[in-house]
Fold this sequence. Notes:
alpha/beta, 11 helices, 26 strands
Amino acid sequence: MRPILFTLAAASVLALTVPAMAKDKTPTASITVDATKPGAKIDRNIFGQFAEHLGYGVYEGVWVGTDSAIPNTRGIRNDVVAALKAIKVPNVRWPGGCFADEYHWRKGIGPANKRPATLNPNWGGVIEPNTFGTHEFMDFVAQIGADPYVSVNVGSGTPQEASEWMEYMTATQPTALAQERAANGHPDAYAVPYLGIGNEAWGCGGSMTPDDYVAQLKIYSRYARNYNTKSPTKKIAVGPDGGDTGYTEAVMKAWKTKVWAWDIDGLSLHSYTTGGWPPSYAATGFGETQYAKLLKETLGMEGLIAKHSAIMDTYDPDKKIALVVDEWGSWLAPTPGSHSGFLAQQNSQRDAVLAALNLNIFARHADRVRMANIAQMVNVLQAMILTDGAKMVLTPTYHVFHMYVPFQDATFIPVTYDAGTYSHDDVTLPRLDVIAAKDKDGKVWLSLTNLDPTQPLEVDAALLGLKAKAATGQTLTAPKLDSVNSFDAPSTVAPKAFTAKAKDGKLVLKLAPESVTVVSLD
Ligand code: AHR
């Protein structure tokens, strides 16, 4: 009996120590960056933002008013403008969201003290003061250097209202509406490069069947005319809710068989990462199970885009119509103590990883996905920026958008690799996610995300069609799984310098657990 006991004991020691030893060894991955096969341009518009009249997204987050003690330019807070300028926001979608289909633009023009107070029934039923209207929005996007993406009211508005709003904004001739715009301080016609024809017409935007919406689309697309001939308008139709293909089929079929009198340039897709509905996943204080589950869900964006793109390809093989993912991001349980209708949530390193994964998916579909808008820019859902009175903090998601600036309008370069796996409980994820691109100056950039929050990852990169001795850039890591930036500790999650050297003709990059790293090849 003794030898058997000894053997069992020895086996159990082995069973305990072997996995532990394996865990101590840094996992590795090999990637090949093939610069000889450049792909599509990664449109800078995929880094777009969304600013709805919702909670503290616009009021307090952007607009504090000209009398505010918070430093501002014509009522728009300077700190937020400076932060957004730094991430080169290409476009801002406004005024909603669900709010857009109850917004009546005339209430938001003219002297501030004459503007009527209305209600915001979608988002807490609070008073909408209408002090931030068309002129203030146009001033805001001009201050940050972004293009306006305006959504017209199809749900509770009329074609006449939408048509007159467009005339008010874009007419170059002295029509009565253009003169009213001039009297309100802006003689020059505005450019409206992007126009959304309604929002979520399948839901808060009117509960329309696909065919009912198509009937509206034809009318609004025709009559919401752009009169500013120096600056054309691209029109974006309501499209699918997640994986539902009804709108994709109906809108694309209508477009394919359309007559000359109407047109569109884009089809919108909305898909949030929620962990279930209603959202119950905490934004902070979560464990590895919720970390892994949420990232697994967000990777579903790949399948959604592939599915809708395949339908679009059947009607539009030349990819004239862009798939515009104009609402995406994490939608988590509201911050405890906040108004549940204000959709306030903290933003952790998990959000940073989630953002990188989605941006990478959009980049891989750059030929079809030419615009996207994360929800939302300030103080709402997966925000770039949180404010509290005069205080402002940049979130981990902000830092990802900052690190990804070089990818704006860069040319996609394919990367092949075996991502390996990271598993927790019953969830298995790829361990690694990589994209590469060449910018206008010929510099090649890599973004590498290590999804595994428990282990670093050593990546060796073989380069085809280019040479590099080193890579330099930034890495975003966090001390804890759920680290956030707060007003008291604003730099807990902040990019740090990163370098990698070549060895035996390959670059060797050491990625921290749960990290996003962006480097240029030197
Ligand atoms: O972003 C919050 C809301 O989510 C938007 O108003 C709506 O379009 C979507 O359902």
